[in-house]
């Protein structure tokens, strides 16, 4: 009888933990994916991917989650139209051939009740490599305007662009390392 009661409690607890899982839709007005790369050590080139979409599943009780964010590679904005065109062309992202990039994260690390990092894969130009995004901020709050819970944070990582075949300028001294900064907020559905 005692084993049956323990088993029933374990199943109930597992069901309760699963019930804590919630889906969140990426809010494109509060989500930005940007990049920074040194320009010959003199300054920093920056850009932003303006069109993005995705979903997050978060289980705060079980401290698990999954995130999928898709970026439209033709929607790059650096503030310089000629540079945007070069980045979307064949020298860099070949956006006509590879219209999207996608991050899928399925390993969440928590520090207390806050997400501190998300590990997964980044697919860019048909190449997939592991990436870990580290949180510099993370919080959930009840939006007074949306009347729903919103969770989000600022995440960053540095990648070696050559792993995805983005090699332009390496032989001229352009760096391989690119800093990615992801500011994301997602609304509970």
What is the tally of helical segments?
Answer: 2
CATH architecture descriptor: Beta Barrel
Secondary-structure content class? mainly beta
Number of domains: 1
CATH superfamily: Lipid/polyisoprenoid-binding, YceI-like
* Helicity range: 10-25%
Taking all Cα atoms into account, the compactness measure Rg is: 20 Å
Dominant shape = elongated
Strand order of the largest sheet: 1-4-5-7-8-9-10-11
Which percent band covers the strand fraction? over 45%
Short account of what is shown:
The protein has 189 residues and is mainly β. It has 2 helices and 11 strands; from the N terminus they run αββββββαβββββ. 14% of the residues lie in helices and 54% in strands.
Please characterize this protein's 3D structure.
This protein is mostly beta strands and 189 residues long. The protein has a single domain, classed as Lipid/polyisoprenoid-binding, YceI-like (Lipocalin, Beta Barrel), CATH 2.40.128. The chain has helices at 2-19, 81-88; strands at 22-26, 32-39, 43-49, 52-59, 64-72, 76-77, 100-111, 114-124, 127-142, 149-160, 177-188. An eight-stranded antiparallel beta barrel has the order 1-4-5-7-8-9-10-11. The chain is elongated and about 50 Å long. The relative contact order is 0.19. The model is unreliable at 4-18 (pLDDT under 50).
């Amino acid at each position: 009888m005692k084993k049956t009661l323990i088993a029933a409690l374990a199943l109930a607890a597992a069901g309760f933990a699963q019930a804590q899982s919630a889906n969140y839709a990426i809010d494109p007005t509060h989500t930005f994916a940007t990049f920074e790369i040194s320009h010959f050590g003199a300054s920093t080139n920056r850009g932003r991917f303006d069109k993005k979409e995705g979903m997050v599943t978060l289980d705060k009780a079980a401290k698990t989650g999954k995130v999928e964010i898709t970026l439209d590679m033709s929607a790059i904005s650096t503030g310089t139209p000629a540079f945007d065109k070069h980045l979307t062309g064949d020298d860099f992202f070949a956006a006509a051939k590879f219209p999207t990039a996608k991050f899928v994260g399925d390993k969440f690390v928590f520090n207390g009740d806050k997400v501190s990092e998300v590990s997964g894969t980044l697919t860019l130009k048909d190449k997939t490599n592991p990436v870990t995004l580290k949180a510099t901020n993370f919080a959930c709050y009840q939006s007074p305007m949306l009347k729903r819970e919103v969770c989000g944070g600022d995440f960053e990582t540095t990648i070696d662009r050559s792993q995805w075949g983005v090699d332009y300028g390496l032989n001229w001294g352009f760096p391989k390392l690119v800093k990615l900064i992801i500011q994301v907020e997602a609304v509970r559905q």
